């Protein structure tokens, strides 16, 4: 574990610590904090060879998952909740949460949809890929057979349904919750990049999602966040 100081905090600025795990949803929170231009400190945790988070993360929150943050003495878990919490508390003048009813409806929906519906199928796909990669050679053909059957029957079609849904939503609006970029897009950011990648669909076949991901990557906060993530990954 390493402390990575990115900003110096003074007594009247927020005291936010992000408990960051490599290759995790914690990158969303770094992205948000860069959008909000808030000072924060990253504490780095690294996955073990089993790909799980280290036990010490349970000292921060009993579930031992990342992201989890501390804001002063308050521990906040769940990426969607952390995003909404930080925007409500510190983002009032940043336009990251819609004020009109229709856009706010979409904002809340997508904040829940990403973790409630999309991530479970993407994680299932990831687990099956990992299983195929790590299977001992002697049972590899059997494991590969089971995995490709599951992919054909269940995982692949579900991923395609999500892709079609998102592609359709993005024909109606520039961002997920209207014409204005919001916290819902931050929650969706890396998940939708993964959705496109895991669907195996070419960018031309999902032009709206491709346009959306390109616009996301062009944001200066996204670029700064990626630099912080890269720097944190490299730090010992
Ligand atoms: N629904 C939670 C999911 C948190 C979660 O499962 N995080 C993963 C990383 S993306 C994790 O900590 N995995 C390590 C482990 O399960 O040991 C959220 O959105 O914050």
UniProtKB/TrEMBL annotation:
<dbReference type="GO" id="GO:0004601">
    <property type="term" value="F:peroxidase activity"/>
</dbReference>
<dbReference type="InterPro" id="IPR040079">
    <property type="entry name" value="Glutathione_S-Trfase"/>
</dbReference>
<keyword id="KW-0808">Transferase</keyword>
<dbReference type="GO" id="GO:0004364">
    <property type="term" value="F:glutathione transferase activity"/>
</dbReference>
<dbReference type="InterPro" id="IPR036282">
    <property type="entry name" value="Glutathione-S-Trfase_C_sf"/>
</dbReference>
<dbReference type="InterPro" id="IPR010987">
    <property type="entry name" value="Glutathione-S-Trfase_C-like"/>
</dbReference>
<feature type="domain" description="GST N-terminal">
    <location>
        <begin position="13"/>
        <end position="94"/>
    </location>
</feature>
<dbReference type="Pfam" id="PF00043">
    <property type="entry name" value="GST_C"/>
</dbReference>
<feature type="domain" description="GST C-terminal">
    <location>
        <begin position="100"/>
        <end position="236"/>
    </location>
</feature>
<comment type="similarity">
    <text>Belongs to the GST superfamily.</text>
</comment>
<dbReference type="InterPro" id="IPR004046">
    <property type="entry name" value="GST_C"/>
</dbReference>
<dbReference type="Pfam" id="PF13409">
    <property type="entry name" value="GST_N_2"/>
</dbReference>
<protein>
    <recommendedName>
        <fullName>glutathione transferase</fullName>
        <ecNumber>2.5.1.18</ecNumber>
    </recommendedName>
</protein>
<dbReference type="GO" id="GO:0005737">
    <property type="term" value="C:cytoplasm"/>
</dbReference>
<dbReference type="InterPro" id="IPR004045">
    <property type="entry name" value="Glutathione_S-Trfase_N"/>
</dbReference>
<dbReference type="InterPro" id="IPR036249">
    <property type="entry name" value="Thioredoxin-like_sf"/>
</dbReference>
């Amino acid at each position: 574990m390493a402390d990575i100081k990115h900003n110096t905090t003074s007594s009247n600025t927020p005291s936010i610590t992000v408990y960051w795990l490599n290759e995790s949803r914690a990158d969303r929170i770094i992205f948000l904090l860069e959008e909000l231009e808030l000072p924060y400190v990253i504490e780095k945790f690294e996955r073990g060879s089993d790909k799980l988070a280290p036990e010490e993360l349970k000292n921060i929150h009993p579930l031992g998952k990342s992201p989890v943050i501390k804001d002063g003495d308050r521990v906040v878990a769940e990426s969607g909740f952390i995003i909404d919490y930080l925007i409500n508390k510190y983002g009032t003048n940043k336009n990251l949460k819609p004020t009109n009813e229709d856009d706010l409806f979409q904002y809340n929906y997508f904040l829940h949809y990403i973790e409630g519906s999309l991530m479970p199928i993407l994680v299932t796909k990831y687990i099956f890929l990992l299983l195929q990669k790590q299977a001992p050679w002697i049972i590899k053909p059997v494991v590969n057979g089971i995995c490709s059957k599951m992919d054909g029957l269940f995982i692949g079609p579900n991923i395609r349904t999500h892709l079609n849904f998102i592609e359709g939503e993005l024909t109606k609006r520039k961002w997920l919750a209207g014409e204005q970029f919001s916290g819902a897009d931050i929650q969706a950011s890396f998940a939708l990049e993964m959705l496109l990648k895991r669907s195996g669909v070419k960018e031309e076949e999902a032009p709206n999602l491709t346009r959306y991901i390109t616009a996301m990557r062009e944001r200066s906060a996204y670029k700064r966040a990626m630099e912080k993530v890269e720097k944190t990954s490299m730090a010992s």
